[in-house]
Amino acid sequence: MILITGATGNFGSKAIQHLLNKGIAAKGIAALVRNREDTQPLSDQGIHVRMGDYADVDSMIKAFEGVEKMLLISSSDRGPVENRTKHHINAITAAKEANVKHIVYTSFVRKPDHEDSAIADFENSHVESEKFLKEIGIDYTILQNGIYQEMILAFVGEKVAETGTILFPAAEGKASWVLREELAEAAINVLTTEGHENKTYNLTNNASVDFEKIARYISEALGREVGYNSPDVEKFKATLEKAGVPDMYIGMFVMWGTAVAEGMMDAEDTTLESLLGRKPTTVKQFIDQIYR
Ligand SMILES: NC(=O)c1ccc[n+]([C@@H]2O[C@H](COP(=O)([O-])OP(=O)(O)OC[C@H]3O[C@@H](n4cnc5c(N)ncnc54)[C@H](OP(=O)(O)O)[C@@H]3O)[C@@H](O)[C@H]2O)c1
Predict the structure, then answer these.
(1) Burial class, 17, CB count within 10 angstroms (exposed 0-12 / middle 13-18 / buried 19+)
(2) Which of 43, 107, 165, 213 has the maximal Cβ count within 10 Å?
(3) Rounded CA gap, 105 and 133, in Å?
(4) 55 lines ligand 1 (CB under 6 A)
């Protein structure tokens, strides 16, 4: 039995779809779900629904019964970052207790100088989780996933076609943006083929792209000029506050913008291409699909 955690989320639901596309029978797939009302669409497909919460080890020990391999999708907890670390450690502990043989864990791309970056806490949560996973004595595969191309949409804003401006403090920083769905496909290829035990993969795109280029691609797709403006962080915060953006989101935008400016996600690599057996979707292709 293969179990997918975070099965109600974007990544998890795509991962389940890829398992089914690969011909894995629904009865050989289990999904970890935390809310009872989310179970129906999965059980309608014949998938085993297992109730469990990352905050509750016992619920997961029960949920992981009979599971041989699992995809542990990192927690999306919005509270202090330590919550996420605890969630991952809980899930790994439960997997060990339930005798799971192999865990594929979705981590995040990491540069050597990450400890001095705007995403240091976020990265350290993955560092701690990876360390715990490596030491517990279960086969593991760590997927250091790049930043999702879908995040570009949040950073440029819903109204970019109307305003004609991208306001984001990423300066000239580049990132090796990847399509979430392709990361899910790669994760399933790892889970369903041999030879990935105790390996760490950097899953990013073949070419990194900055916001000048993103603005150009959006301009071409819309047939109308869109410019890029990278304000200093204090000005950016003040603009968002004036627009009524909640503090939590301002913090997140500043964190990601600064990390892109620092080059923390600029990590070109062809491992994803190898796992997919084709070139990953480029930022230009993604933008064309959204804005044309
Ligand atoms: N690489 C990137 O650029 C990037 C960007 C954003 C996030 N991420 C990470 O990648 C993960 C997957 O992305 P996504 O887009 O699929 O996120 P998502 O749509 O928010 O899905 C997160 C999943 O985790 C589940 N979950 C959260 N807290 C849980 C808990 N306490 N117990 C059990 N399940 C829990 C959610 O369940 P519910 O449906 O019950 O909430 C949901 O199924 C995120 O969780 C985050 O760690 C990466």
Answers:
(1) middle
(2) 107
(3) 9
(4) yes
Q: 205 falls in which pLDDT band (50, 70, 90)?
A: very high
CA of 123 to the centre of ligand 1 (A): 16
Q: Counting Cβ atoms within 10 Å, is residue 96 exposed (0-12), middle (13-18) or buried (19+)?
A: middle
Instruction: Spell out the domains of the chain, with CATH numbers in brackets.
Output: 2-148+177-206+267-280 (3.40.50.720)
Is residue 59 in contact with ligand 1, taking CB distance under 6 Å?
no
Verify whether ligand 1 is closer than 6 Å to residue 157 (CB atom).
Answer: no
Q: How many CB atoms lie within 10 A of CB 264?
A: 26
DSSP bridge partners of 178: 148
Over pLDDT 70: what percentage of the chain?
100
pLDDT of residue 175: 98
Q: Is 79 in the pocket of ligand 1 (CB under 6 A)?
A: no
Say what angle helices 283-291 and 211-222 make with each other, to 10 degrees. Answer: 40
Contact 160, 251 (CB under 8 A): no
Q: How far is CA 36 from CA 39, 56, 213, 280, in A?
A: 6, 15, 44, 35
From ligand 1's centre to the CA of 73, what distance in Å?
7
- pLDDT for res 38: 87
Q: Does the pLDDT at position 134 exceed 90?
A: yes
- Of 71, 69, 32, which is closest to residue 50 (Cα–Cα)? 32
- Say what the pTM is: 0.97
Distance 76 CA to ligand 1 centre (A): 4
